[in-house]
Amino acid sequence: MAVPPIKKNFSELQPPFQESHPGGGQSAADDLLRKVAMSISKAISSYCVSRDKKIQGLPPNIRTQITELQKCFSTLREQCLKVCTLNDQTRKLDDDLDSLSSDEENDSIHEQKKELTAQIDALEDPIEVAEETMKEFMQKLSQKFQELGVTREFFSDWWQLSRIEKAMRELSLQFMEEQLLHRCVNRLDYLRETQVIIGEKKEEIIQRFYQGDHGRLDAKHVTFQFFPHGSETHNRGKVPVKISFFSEGHEIFSVFFKPRHAHIDKRVVQLFQELNSLPKEQKSSDVALPTYTIVNSELGSQRFSLWEFIDGVHLHGQTAEDAIGLLPSIEEKKRLLAQLLRLESVCKFLNISDLHSDNLVFFHLGNADSQVIPIDLESIQPGNPTGLFRTTPTTPPFTDREKTLIENCKREFENIPTRFVPIPTSHFLAGLTRCDSFIQMANFVVTSLQINNTLHISSEELEWYVLTDFLHNDVPFLIEKNNSIYYCMADQEILIATRKSSP
User: Fold this and answer.
1) The pTM is what?
2) What number of CA atoms fall less than 13 Å from residue 89's CA on the CB side?
3) Which of 45, 95, 279, 402 is the most buried (most CB within 10 A)?
4) Residue 346's pLDDT is what?
5) Dihedral in degrees, nearest 10, Cα atoms 421, 424, 430, 435
6) Phi, psi dihedral angles at 477 (to 5 degrees)
7) Is the model's pLDDT at 385 over the cut of 60?
8) What residues are paired with 295 via a beta bridge?
9) For residues 492 and 6, what is the distance between their CA atoms, to the nearest angstrom?
10) How is residue 413 annotated by DSSP?
11) SS (H, E, C) 74-104
């Protein structure tokens, strides 16, 4: 059966089983449903074993909490299906009521309407009670997840099940349960790994990032916080972590831990420093670019980077331009927009993209030294916008010296692995909790890759990769190196395409 065509307007994206199927009708919809069900069943079976192994590596008290979570899901599933069934009954009665003609109303029709209305009214209280019970139980379950240090669990999506065809509800519930458990276990396992790394690298971190008297520092207490709150995860729950060091009960300093090397980011920040250091007559702008310290490191097979922690805020809007536009101070708006324009000019020339709100920090807002600072510069996408502005603005031309420095940096990118983002991260997030969306997402990625690349995988293979990422509540992560594109899954790099040679 052909996969339904991808809709490029993701705000209107609907699950395939809710779409019409010209020529195929219900049979095509049933075939697609079976395909989704079989794929999800296979993925769940494949990854339960690895999850159980991770659970066995956690402390006994944590294992007990996870077991309790698994038991809780059966109760929540039962309550959720009860709400859906009651809503189905109400909709059926509403449809029956609407079908009765009002133009030719007689005593019989009047009595039927009266009876249907009474049945609808009789369902109001049971629905209200069931929904309130479900809401209370979700709050309790959410609290259990938060006690384990795991947040942003998409519990609100459970309310949407009543809009899904009955045949998909059990499957959707099972998918969301597995997704939440994977997210929880992966986060806890990743935290354990990170604690080991920081324990081994603590002295190195203090030497590189602590500005005070090292002899007086007694940093025995270290805390770990997933950051920014609600950030998307990759490669089995990996996400940036804020590492804070304490001495005598007081926080002394913090660093930002990222579970990847940051060669591109570090080289871009180095370029910012070079541009800032130019004599005034060799600059096209007096606006300084943001700079900070990044250290790449390794421990065994683990590659990671340590970043100077910037204590700022994330302003959420469609773009950074939109977020700045909501600030109250006119002077601050002008200053930050000037910074944003300078960032745009350099990042656009370097083909840096995906600079959405989670990848930007606003430092010292409300003060004369406020700044907008990018904290993720790894995505290099020729032809794509940076994401800083709604539409690409006109920027001043570079001086000859600036252009030379930027071109030198750009040439170095050719030998450094860079992140490849086939569609915006926000679009992956939009499909993350729909159990069937892996088909459309994979189809869109394949369509995008076919333009300038030779593919080495089929749509079905890519569907499996996207599904397994979605099952783990992860956003797919792709990289490009040596003119080839790889899909990263856990510790694997899978070749999926190579760039076509220019004619």
Assistant:
1) 0.79
2) 17
3) 402
4) 97
5) -30
6) -125, 120
7) yes
8) 306
9) 27
10) G
11) HHHHHHHHHHHHHHHHHHHHHHHHHHCCCCC
